[in-house]
C-alpha cells in the first residue's frame, strides 16, 4: 500500500493534510483501516469540538473490535464527514479520499508528525 | 504462551492470498482475506472455503469404544448409526461443560471426536482417563488431519464436480469416506455457518492440492476463501454457541439452553449424570438466567462481557456480539435473568462503554436458511 507523499502521519495511524486557510483534513491510514477490518460504526468529533493532539476524539468500530480515534493535531473541528457516518465502509475502501473523518482549524501541530517515508518505515514488517 | 504459533498445512497458501492472520488457541489462522463482510455474504449466498485445521481430532477404536463414549459424554452415542454424526457435550462430574463436540461414527467400532482447538488437549486427557476401564484405544489424531470446509448454497455443486461420492444420499450430520479431487477424504455434511456445506478431513500432505481443486471448481460460482472472522459472525447469526463464550465449565448444558443434548435415558452411568439431573430440575423450575438474542436499535456493537441492563440494573451479560451483515444491525447473544428473557421484553439495553443502548430481546437464531 502507498501512503500519499503530500500527507503527514501520526504514530497512531492518522493522516493530516496540509492546511489550507488554516483548515486541515484528518483520516486514518490504509494500514490502520486494513488492520481494523470492515468499519461498521464511526463516532466522529462534532463541529465546534476542541481536539487535542494525541488525545482520543472518537471511535471506530469494526467487526472484531472498537478502536479509539486520536487527533493528530490540536484545534477546533469545523466539519465531520457525514458520508462516513452514513457509510462507514468508506474508511476501508477510500481511507485517503472519501473516507476522511473530520476537518480541523489547526491551532497547534505536534513536532513529531511523520513524512510518508517515515510512516512507511514505522509500519514496515507488520 | 510464549511458544511459536502452530501453522496449518495451508499456511503458505494463506499468506500468498494476503490473509490477515490471527492467533487462535495457539494456531496462526486466517482471520480474513479481504473484507470479512464480503466473505460472510459469499457464504450466505454462494460459497466460502475455510481452513479449520486447528480443530482437534481424537479417534476411539475397539469393541467397547461406543460404551466408553456413552460413559464419557452426555449424548447417547450407541444410537448413532455408522456414517452418521452427533453434536454432543463432554461435562465435568459437577455438570460443567468441558467442551462441545461432534462425534462421527466411522465404523461399528471406530469413532472420530472433533473438539475445539482451545480444548483439544483437555478433551483428549478426559477421554483417555474416562476410557481407561473399557476395551478401546484413544488416539490423538490432531496431526493426522487437515480440515477444509466448503460452506454455502453452492457447496453441493462445487463438491459434486470433484467427487463420485453420493452427496444426495449424504444427509446433514452424516459423514462418509470418499475421494475428492483424487484425494482420500472423510466427507461430512456438517458446518458452523447455518448454511448447507461440507467438512473434508484429509491428510495434511493433501491439503494444498485439495484447496486448489476446490478453488478452481468454485471459480465460476463465487466461491471465496473465508476466514475465522466471518465464521464467527455466521455462527452467531445462526445462534450457534461458541465455547468460552456461551459455553463454559461454570455452566451446564441446561443453563445454556442445550439440555436436549443430555440423554438420561441411555444405559449405564455417565460422567456428570447426578449433577445434570439436578441441573435439569433447576432449569425446568426456576432457571437463573436464559440465553437470548439481542438486536440493536442503534449502531454501536455489543461485545462479550458487556452488561445487559434494564431499569438501571444489571440483568445479564453479553457472551458474543458483532455487527450482523445479514440483518444490517449489531446483534448479540446474552445470558439474562429469566424475568427479562421473553422475546419482546421492553426496556432492555446493553451498557456500551457507559451508554445504555436500547436492544430488542428475540428468540434465537437470528437467521435460518430457507430449505
Automatic annotation (TrEMBL), chain A:
Its cofactor is (R)-lipoate. It comes from the Bacteria. Residues 23-105 form the Lipoyl-binding domain. The modification N6-lipoyllysine is found at residue 64. Signal peptide: none annotated. Belongs to the GcvH family. The glycine cleavage system is composed of four proteins: P, T, L and H. This is Glycine cleavage system H protein. It comes from Streptomyces goshikiensis.
